[in-house]
Fold this sequence. Notes:
Elements: E1 3-6, E2 17-20, E3 28-32, H1 37-57, E4 61-66, E5 69-75, H2 81-86, H3 99-110, E6 118-122, H4 128-135, E7 139-144, H5 149-155, E8 164-168, E9 177-182, E10 185-190, H6 213-227, E11 233-238, E12 241-247, H7 252-268, H8 272-275, H9 285-295, H10 300-305, H11 320-327, E13 333-337, H12 345-351, E14 355-360, H13 367-376, E15 380-383
Parallel strand pairs: 6-7, 7-8, 13-14, 14-15
Antiparallel strand pairs: 1-2, 3-8, 4-5, 4-6, 9-10, 11-12, 11-13
Helix pairs in contact: 1-6, 3-4, 4-5, 7-12
Amino acid sequence: MKELTLKYGCNPNQIPAKIYRDNGELPIEILSGKPGYINFLDAFNSYQLVKELSEALHMPAATSFKHVSPTSAAVGLPLSEELKKACFVEDIPGLNESPLACAYARARGCDRMSSFGDWIALSHVCDVTTAMVIKREVSDGIIAPGYTPEALDILKTKRKGNYNIVKIDPSYIPETREIKQVFGITFEQARNNSLITPVLFTNVVTANKHLPEHAVRDLTVALITLKYTQSNSVCFAKDGQAIGVGAGQQSRIHCTRLAGSKADLWHVRQHEKVINLPFLPTVGRPERDNAVDAYLSEDCDELLSCWETFFTEKPASFPKEEQKAYLSTIQGVSLGSDAFFPFGDNVERAKKSGVRYVAQPGGSVRDDHVIETCNQYGMAMAFTGLRLFHH
C-alpha cells in the first residue's frame, strides 16, 4: 500500500486528505479502526521516540502522546506499590513481570489528565499485560511493531471494535530528507538523526562534576523525549521516565514552570494521602483523575464539601503548605532543555522541584550566570552542544 485516504485532515473541512509515500510502500498495517490525520502525526512521531529510547537504553519503552507531543515517556522499570496505586494499576496481575507494561503504566500515569484520549506507542510487541493496562484507559489508538494474538483480541474490544490499532514495520528506515508544505511553500531539511548517547553528558561545566548512571539514564530519557516534543520544551525526568513535559511555550521559563508543576503533581500523587483516597467503587477512572486534581488544588474545599459523590468517607485535606513540605524532600530529579537557558531563573525554578542534574546545549551569552546558579545549589550541569528544536 503506497497511499491511504483519510476521512479529513486536521479539521473536518480540510478535505481531501491522505498519507502516502512517493517511493515505496507505507510501512504500516491497519489492524483495526480508521486512524485519522492527527492520529498518524501522533503515531509516527511517538513511534520514533520509543524506538530511539529503547535502542539507547536497551529496554522496552512506551509513550503517551497528545497533539503531537508526549505527555510522558518511560522505559520498563518495575513500579513500587505506591506508584502502582498512583497510576491506578495496582490490580493488574503480574505487572512488574512485563517491562513493556511497566513502561506504559508509567507513561500513562505521569500526567493522567493530559493523557486522556492519548495515542500510545510501544517499542516492542504488545503483550497481554500491556493490553490489559491499555484496555481500561480512554485512548484514541496505538502503534507497535506487533501484537500477540491474545493482546490483539483484548485491544479489539475497545470502542466496540473500532479502536485504532496500527502495526509498523520495525525495519523501516525513512529517507534522510524531510519535506513539508506551509502556505503553498515547500520546506526541505535533513532529518534529525543526531543520537542521544552518554558522550553528550561528558562536558560537565559546573563545580559538581558527578553525573551518576541513573542521572545519565534519566537525562537520556529527557532529551529523547524533547527531540519529539513541540518546541520550546523542557522535560523533568526521574526513575527512567519523563515526569513533567513543558511543550510549545514561547519562553523558556514558562516551559520550565509548566514542566515543574507537572513534575510536582506526579510526586504528590504518590503521597499516602492521595494513594489512599477512599474512592467509591462506582467512580470511574477519569472521574478519579479529576477528583485527585481537585483534591490537590485550590478547589479542595469544594471537593470535600460534596465528598459523598466520590468517597466512602470524608478524606483529610492535604493543604498546599503540607504539599510544599513534602516536595521539599524530593531530590535527584534530572532536567533537560531543547535549547539553552538564557537566564538562571530556570535553574531557580528547577531547584524547587528537586532537580540535581541538568543537560542543555549551552551557548547563551549568560552561560556563566546559569552555571553560577547551578553551583549555588550543588547541581551538576552538562553542556551537550546539541539543540533539539522540533516543529
